[in-house]
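Q: Got a minute? One more chain.
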Amino acid sequence: MLIGETIRVALGALRANKLRSLLTMLGIVIGVAAVIAVVALGNGAQKQINDRITALGTTLLTVNPGQAMGGGIRTGGGGARLTTDDAQALADRGTHMLAVQPEMEGRLQVVYGTKNTNVSIIGSTSNYPEVRNYVVEFGRFFTHAEDQTRRRVAVIGPAVATNLGLETAEALIGETIRIRGIQFEVVGAFKTKGSGGGFGNPDEQILIPIETARFRVLGNNRVRSIGVLAPSEAEIPETMANIQTILRREHRLRPGREDDFQIRSQSDFLNTLSETTQTMGLLLAGIAAVSLVVGGIGIMNIMLVSVTERTREIGVRKALGATRLNIMFQFLIEAIVLCMVGGALGIAAGVGGGLLVTSKFGWPTAIGADSVAIAFGFSAFVGIVFGVYPARRAATMDPIVALRFE
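A: Always. Here it is, folded:
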């Protein structure tokens, strides 16, 4: 029997049982679609995280409070602190720093007219836009003089205006809002940054001078982090060493004691988050791939049923001269076609699902050709693996026994 005729016979057998063939490859369709959609969501989230961190600048270092340690054992009742005094020491004595930007935070109620919302209130210095790479779209940012004189001025994220019932942030410029019952004049509004990536929404925050936050709103000098700009990427190690020396002296840490603060660079964040999202993506893709295995088992089951139903046909073909290889090839082609057609439909469903999620929910997706190729190739591989046993069983039948089968 010629190869072309064998393929035509195999396809004819599938067309003869269209509904069964469709239901059989349903598991493959779901598996491939799930793999593509999950990988697309994972890649999209990772790309957004990378974009968000890279947008802050590659020379930005972030100093966070750590855990006071001694001899590998935690000392004291609570975590270590960073204060405005630490930031001032870095600004005064730092030799490898372009800018020092401390920030303190509290989540407070904000009222405008009859509307109110609960947002993040950040107290920072006048160099916040420079260090954090923010752009003021409307109005202006507060000045160093306004910070030092503890003026009650605020710069809002665009989502704050939306939460307060306004169409644009520009409408709030020059207006008065109340933060914790204290009146603040809105002097500026940031350009939208966009939310996502597990960092919260940077558009849903209000910036006020750090001295105002310290003495009028939050009532303490504790900062959540200190941003430091290194002169260049090449000088980041020197800047980190400079920060470490100054803060250890400020915190009176004796030699041998571990730092009670952490210094992180943007590359550290990128590496950590990339590893995390990659691990989660592989885990979810592995779970989705189980559907392919289940679909493959379903195909093997149906192929075994098909072999049993067509036992007399197999006997007739062998009697007419078909070899074991011809019979095995015919049934293997049927299994592979089921998986490949299912894979093609799954690719369409996965790509469509990813685009639908992006358009309806705004979740970032990135559909790569590699994930599509892997999913399609794996579906064909499943067809071969789970089609071999039924095909081999058909090929090894005794033609005399097959012809007697009722």
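A: The first helix runs from residue 3 to 16.
Q: Perfect, thanks.
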